[in-house]
Amino acid sequence: MSKEENRLHRVRVPALDKILGEAFPVLDDGFVRLVDYMGNDDSIVQAARVSYGKGTKSVSDDRGLIRYLMRHRHTTPFEMCEIKLHIRVPMDIWRQWIRHRTANVNEYSTRYSLAIDTARKTGPGEWRLQSEINKQGSEGGLDPEAGQKLTEREADTQKFLQEIYEERIELGVAREQARKDLPLSTYTEAYWKIDLHNLLHFLNLRMDHKAQFEIRVYAEAIGEKIVRKWVPLVWEAFMDYRHGAITLSRKEIDLLALLNEQRHDEAGKLLLEAGFTTRDGDLTRPTLEGRELAGKLERMGMRVPWEKD
Amino acid sequence: MSKEENRLHRVRVPALDKILGEAFPVLDDGFVRLVDYMGNDDSIVQAARVSYGKGTKSVSDDRGLIRYLMRHRHTTPFEMCEIKLHIRVPMDIWRQWIRHRTANVNEYSTRYSLAIDTARKTGPGEWRLQSEINKQGSEGGLDPEAGQKLTEREADTQKFLQEIYEERIELGVAREQARKDLPLSTYTEAYWKIDLHNLLHFLNLRMDHKAQFEIRVYAEAIGEKIVRKWVPLVWEAFMDYRHGAITLSRKEIDLLALLNEQRHDEAGKLLLEAGFTTRDGDLTRPTLEGRELAGKLERMGMRVPWEKD
Amino acid sequence: MSKEENRLHRVRVPALDKILGEAFPVLDDGFVRLVDYMGNDDSIVQAARVSYGKGTKSVSDDRGLIRYLMRHRHTTPFEMCEIKLHIRVPMDIWRQWIRHRTANVNEYSTRYSLAIDTARKTGPGEWRLQSEINKQGSEGGLDPEAGQKLTEREADTQKFLQEIYEERIELGVAREQARKDLPLSTYTEAYWKIDLHNLLHFLNLRMDHKAQFEIRVYAEAIGEKIVRKWVPLVWEAFMDYRHGAITLSRKEIDLLALLNEQRHDEAGKLLLEAGFTTRDGDLTRPTLEGRELAGKLERMGMRVPWEKD
Amino acid sequence: MSKEENRLHRVRVPALDKILGEAFPVLDDGFVRLVDYMGNDDSIVQAARVSYGKGTKSVSDDRGLIRYLMRHRHTTPFEMCEIKLHIRVPMDIWRQWIRHRTANVNEYSTRYSLAIDTARKTGPGEWRLQSEINKQGSEGGLDPEAGQKLTEREADTQKFLQEIYEERIELGVAREQARKDLPLSTYTEAYWKIDLHNLLHFLNLRMDHKAQFEIRVYAEAIGEKIVRKWVPLVWEAFMDYRHGAITLSRKEIDLLALLNEQRHDEAGKLLLEAGFTTRDGDLTRPTLEGRELAGKLERMGMRVPWEKD
Question: Which residue, B200, B221, B223, is CA-closest to B100?
Fold first, then answer.
């Protein structure tokens, strides 16, 4: 412990202090607000240096160290930063959010207080169609005319459910019971506090294109409006080594080696045996995993072997 | 490691094996089912003896050791037992349940599959009134006539919301979006796996008389139908040292000492200063904490000092 | 969300800012240093009010709310405060410390860096005798003459082990292997970050008179020098409702009721049946649990029934 | 819930039942023993089907589903399996092990009982040299003659420390204090219980070639002797998609695209700008990250651009 370390002052991030308490709007009536934070890029370096020793301390080294930690999944230094958000979010989205068990949470209680009287509304152009390929996803939009009708029905439904709720409350029914037929789209609020490592895990999953649109927009707001400003070096490393990265399985690596060494017959055999493709008579078709592989090959500038030139 | 330990076989609890897979009904359409378990009373003793050494091993000792561990909150041996349940529960109740972060969970996904088409129904005599004292509780019931009306309205509402959902599905709307206006009372299902220590914590909170009725009946079913059979010595110790116990604060202990030593003036002064009572002219009235104290004094067979004989 | 909430600034606790980075000495060469903190008493109130609604906001109310939360074990608002410490502690004590799994940790690595070259030294008057009653405790001290001899032997031992370590290092042995015969008393350092709820749980266990002396002094330093200043209202409530409190089991409550109602024969029978006492001919003796009960009765100003007047 | 599900019996894995309680030796005096387990490959499929719906149920489908879950990091179904081990391990290795916070643990207590009287011994040919490149690793071995000397010194040291310990114990010093100068190489024992998802995370880190040898051999014993038999489909998927996989960063993907499209000048520029190489006059040298990239390129059968043919 050097003298220098002894003269500590609290970490401040001026760019974050400016947006403290500001509600970034999400969806039609939700928001994300920064309530407090602990630490910044420097705190990660500081914690890592407790573990890994001192060395030089120039700015470029800090960046290099953070990137090294991110690349090698040395996660504990990232846990040394903490953030507290105030969010407003529809309950069906909150049900996904809360599955991340590593956060501290205080949610608005509809046992103590009357339920918030707004629910997420869907515009005529916002209705999405069920994806055929991705069983848990959506793809494309409903035609606006049908959308218009659904939007009107939705408004009626939400109004009706609010009346049902109020009717029960007026009759003296306990809040904990009166709320039971409110729609899942009802807004709730929560304080949500989490360390940076677990937040990045949350963002990686929820900023993914396969995440449901309604939670993705929250994740993007948190990432782009807040985390990027809070820990710019971490954010850059996260985008490079996590969010923008791909993983190659042992069999995909073997396949790439065969392709790069021009051993096409063996590659074709491996594709089939490892389940990337299936044969149907003369026809070779990719499986689900094959289509995932194709996406990776395209990003790497390589031909997809079963596709015609 | 003795030879004896070397001849391990898996722990079996015949009383549990009999109810494996049996659905214990809860509420109008919910259930709790035992899927699997690891360990039993003996496993706790076994784990404790790794920490605390061997000693004698008669049955009475095992009971004594388990009670000692429970009394002194030596919690780690209880973590050596694990249980897996399959439950069916309304979403508003699941929202409370899931707040216990220490469990492993696989919930039915309404992104992948169509939502379960039943919602929790309330009988005419089941509507509860808002408690005046306990802001988050209920107290007494609505008169049956008004209840009848609410029950009918509820049935219409749930039917209507199911139609809205099906209409969206038929138009091709993505399941993840179509579900948004389903009522919170919609049933969901989950596999829920938790260790015994954390399960007891859950049961202690949710079997409490202040817990919402709808989650209390699940906790009671788990406790009485399953845990009591699984680990009978632990269950007895839990009822004695946790669920049936009371805590006395430092000031309550001081007060009891004064009362037991007949120092009534000092006791009265302490009651006032510590905030158990307030004075309103000549009248002494208990505060919220004072009423809690009165409940404890009654259980201990003591006079409540501010009450007239 | 009111306008007022919108004008957030970061929580500051001037009394803490003053001691930021200051190393509070513990044991012969250890310390505890505050590195950073998030939140204060107000943050707990703020988080609780998200859950429980608004109400009046005077200072006395805040204290009352915090005490209510502590008393009723509403733990989530306390998780909204976070603290980061830098500690220096002997490895055998750290081995106990690290068993609290809810903290974030970066420990000094003796794979990356040379081991810290000091070990915990014991003064001639500091050697404690094994307790006969408490199998895991100590009681009384060794006579100073024998202590003097042990202290000298300890110094020789630690010096010798440091030489063994250095000899290996000089021969080029990998640090990860060279360290293997360093004594458990070797100092290590760590950054340790934890939320207030889990910190209080740690302090409650480790400030206890049954905790090992060497960890108790760390817990006391953290509690008295840091937490008391950080969240004075929480600290007061913690001392009243947790650290200074006692728990009465269901059977102890039943016993107190019998004693208070002067039903001494039944009380004597219960004592025996519930295992607080055993009979040996005419002699009644307390069991281990009986002695624990006696301690509680004494604090409540009550006679211990099996003791002669 | 179908009738079929209703007729549950507990999952059994005959290959595991055979090795229950068997101590697999590790290091000179350590072991790993299977105490109990919950679930198997089928349980993962069963839990996933609660979330993702039914579909066909042939064996090949089960394998495909498990591989899909592993590939897409759908981790919750893997948490539905649990395992309990009894291990004996040197304390310096246990200090690394215990950093995995998601397990349940009961460790042998040297406050309650006398310390285990063996310490990890190092053979003359087992002393490893400090790696120059990997600051936390070892590389190559000490010459046997020097090793012989260190091994003898080690034996003397461990014998001496055991005597110091016994001397203190005989003088009546409390066990919790007497132990303080035992070597870090002293063996300890623990029950260790963890779910499969977290176990795989542990194995992935600790079976890595960069993990310390002494913990790697434990991880390999657990993986090869136990997990492979317990959940063969999961083990295969884990080896393909996790342990044998590589991650490519966004910049590595961009680089591969340039290389595959024969845009060598741009590739060289990117290598330099992204920090894979540095220039020193005419000389191009790889950085640490560059050397990592080279390892990946080799596995993929590609030329390392900065290496001469």
Answer: B200
Of A105, A131, A146, the CB nearest to B174: A131
A135 to chain B: which residues are within 8 Å by CB? 111-112
A236 plus A256 within the same structural domain = no
Reported ipTM: the value is 0.93
CB D252 within 8 A of CB A255: no
Residue B196 C-alpha, separation from nearest chain D C-alpha, in angstroms: 11
Chain B neighbours, 3+ Cβ pairs < 8 A: A, C, D
Nearest to A248 among D239, D245, D275 (CB): D245
Are D256 and A300 an interchain contact pair (Cβ–Cβ within 8 Å)?
Answer: yes
For the domain that residue A232 is a member of, what is the CATH number? 3.30.1360.170
Domain hosting B145: range is: 128-181
Domain end marker among C201, C220, C243 = C243
Question: Same domain, yes or no, for A274 and A234?
Answer: no
A19 with A74, same domain: the answer is yes
Phi and psi of A183, rounded to 5°? -75, 155
Catalytic residue, from A175, A206, A228, A299: name it: A206
Are the C-beta atoms of A147 and A121 separated by less than 8 Å?
Answer: no
| B205 and chain A in contact, CB less than 8 A | no
CB-CB neighbors (< 8 A) of C250 in chain B: 239-241, 244-245
Q: Which residues of B touch C292 (CB under 8 A)?
A: 71
Please tell me whether residues A60 and A168 are part of one structural domain.
no
Q: Look at chain C and report how many structural domains it folds into.
A: 3
Distance from the Cα of residue B126 to its chain's centroid: 21
Whether C271 and C130 share a structural domain: no
Could you state, in chain order, the average pLDDT of each consecutive group of 10 residues for chain B (309 residues)?
Answer: 56 93 97 97 92 59 94 96 98 96 94 94 96 81 95 97 97 96 98 98 96 97 98 98 98 97 95 95 91 96 86
Whether residue A147 sits in one domain with residue A57? no
A30 shares a domain with A96: yes
- B121 neighbors B154 (Cβ within 8 angstroms): yes
- pLDDT at C4 (0 to 100): 47
For A181, which of B112, B158, B177 is closest by C-beta distance?
B158
Name the 3-class secondary structure at D183: strand
User: Is A73 marked active-site?
Assistant: no
Nearest to B176 among A136, A158, A171 (CB): A136
pLDDT per residue as tens digits for the range A117-166 = 999 999 999 999 998 877 778 888 999 999 999 999 999 999 999 999 99
Question: Which sequence positions of C are flagged as catalytic?
Answer: 206
List the alpha helices (DSSP H) in C175-306: 175-178, 196-206, 213-220, 228-230, 232-238, 250-260, 264-273, 288-299
Report yes or no: B304 and B295 within 8 Å, Cβ to Cβ. no
Q: Among B138, B155, B181, which residue terminates a domain? A: B181
Give me the total of CB pairs closer than 8 Å, taking one residue from chain C and one from chain D: 154
| D280 is a domain residue | yes
Residue C3 resides in a domain? no
The catalytically annotated residue of D206, D250, D263, D303 is D206
Instruction: Give the number of A-C residue pairs with CB atoms closer than 8 Å.
Output: 136
Contacts of A4 (CB under 8 A, 6+ apart): none
Subunits next to D (3 or more Cβ pairs <8 Å) are A, B, C
In a domain, residue C308? The reply is no
Cross-strand partners of C284: C279
Q: B159 CB near a chain A CB, below 8 Å?
A: no
pTM over 0.90: yes
Question: Are C45 and C153 in the same domain?
Answer: no
Q: Rounded to the nearest 5°, which phi and psi values hold at C84?
A: -125, 125
User: DSSP class of residue C125?
Assistant: G
Task: Give yes or no for C134 touching B (CB within 8 A).
Answer: no
The answer to whether position A287 is within a domain reads: yes
Mean of the pLDDT values across residues C2-11? 60
Residue of chain B nearest A179, judged by CA positions: B184
The alpha carbon of residue D182 is apart from the nearest alpha carbon of chain C, in Å, by 5
Cα end-to-end span (Å), chain C: 64
